[in-house]
Amino acid sequence: MSDELLNLRKRIDQLDGEILARLSERARCAQRIGEVKQGNLYRPEREAQVLRRLGDANPGPLPDKAVQKIFREIMSACLGLEKPLRVAYLGPAGTFSESASRKHFGSAPDFLPLASIEDVFRAVEAGHADYAVVPVENSTEGAVNVTLDLLLANPLKICGELKLRIHQHLLSRAADLGAVKRLYSHSQSLAQCHEWLNRNLGGVLRVPVASNAEAARLASEDPESCAVAGEAAGELYGLNKLAANIEDAPDNTTRFLVIATHDAGPSGEDKTSFVFSARNRPGAMHTLLEPLARHGVDMTKLESRPAGGGLWEYVFYADVKGHREEPAVAAALNELDERAAFVKVLGSYPVAAI
Predict the structure, then answer these.
(1) What backbone phi and psi angles, to 5 degrees, belong to 101?
(2) With 0-12 CB in 10 A as exposed, 13-18 as middle and 19+ as buried, what is 288?
(3) 143, 236, 254, 281: which could join 94 in a potential S-S bond, CB 3.0 to 4.6 Å?
(4) Is residue 233 within 8 Å of residue 227, measured between CB atoms?
(5) Ramachandran assignment for 308, one of left (phi > 0), alpha (psi -120 to 50 degrees), beta (any other)
(6) In order of start, what are the domains of the chain with their CATH numbers?
(7) pLDDT per position in the chain (354 positions), as tens?
């Protein structure tokens, strides 16, 4: 071994010791904050600020995203010293919802896979989970309507968001495509990979199931079947990857929301989501949206859903830049509330940091 290599390894050992000492000091500070606050340490706005600051201050050579992921795990571990958070998601294990939950909260919480998005909301409302992660829209397939409907009907708030790139893989116990006779997957994943499947597995029976993880489980029990699912599901059930990244849109992304009994404080880079309905009169939508434009509030999303109260009656879901406590957003929402038949603020929360 050369002197240079030996010296570099000694330096790495020294740095590792220094990092460990600093991590321990950070953890003790987090514990003390918990003693002072006498409550939940998790603050969505604070964590978003920390992750953004670290990304901006990163001198390299590690990429910003790598640094943020490392510190995400450090914060997660520190939070878990007091009492692990309980985070519900749409199960079973191995779904994209689980991957999104771990991306946002790190690996320290107790993760609770549940059978439906309704059960996920119910777990938080009943106090069985502190937070939940639910899909709300996909870049190619659009809105997840059950999530929108539950946000309208439920008292829970949005306290965070994240975006997850969705890579679909063809998974199987079989060694090649020629041995496959059945294909299991969630209906949205089948739609996201429609063209690839038509080209490569046009004659294979497609069987929609409740989740991609369930598809992987079924494929693991049948050597003549395959599943379209994510990498986590393939690893969980020990499947071969017959083809990777088969989604038709290479930038396929799903946006998830973090829900709780509270929303988040201002972080400096926030969104506010709300739902409203218009009175049935000419120019009603213009009247409702005019305060947003006049106060300089930037709307990033507007989507309609049937209201359920009568034929051709709709509610409108909107996202705007800014926190509900910011003067311009607060003024615009107050005027909207005076003009609309119904307004419900779903929450203000940090824009996805990683």
Answers:
(1) -60, -45
(2) buried
(3) 236
(4) yes
(5) left
(6) 86-165+253-260 (3.40.190.10), 169-243 (3.40.190.10), 270-350 (3.30.70.260)
(7) 688 899 999 999 999 999 999 999 999 998 888 777 766 668 899 999 999 999 999 999 999 999 999 999 999 999 888 778 999 999 888 889 999 999 999 999 999 999 999 999 999 999 999 999 999 999 888 899 999 999 999 999 999 999 999 999 999 998 888 889 999 999 889 999 999 999 999 989 999 998 889 999 999 998 899 999 999 999 999 999 999 999 998 888 999 999 999 999 999 999 999 999 987 777 888 889 999 999 999 999 999 888 766 545 789 999 999 999 999 999 999 999 999 989 999 999 999 987
Tokens describing residue 303: 């989507």
Q: How many CA atoms, within 13 angstroms, populate the side-chain half-sphere of residue 20? A: 6
CA dihedral 85, 86, 90, 94 (to 10 degrees): 70
H-helix segments, the chain:
3-37, 44-57, 64-79, 96-105, 117-125, 145-153, 187-192, 194-200, 212-220, 231-236, 284-294, 327-339
Torsion angle, alpha carbons of 267, 268, 270, 274, to 10? 90
Q: Which amino acid belongs to residue 126? A: A
Which residue in 71, 96, 121, 256 is the catalytic one?
Answer: 256
Q: Check if 71 is active-site.
A: no
- Cβ burial 73-106 (10 Å sphere, 16+ → b, else e): ebbbbbbbebeebbbbbbbbebbbbbbbbbbbbb
Which one is catalytic: 71, 254, 272, 316? 254
Q: Catalytic: 254?
A: yes
- Tokens coding 263: 């929303």
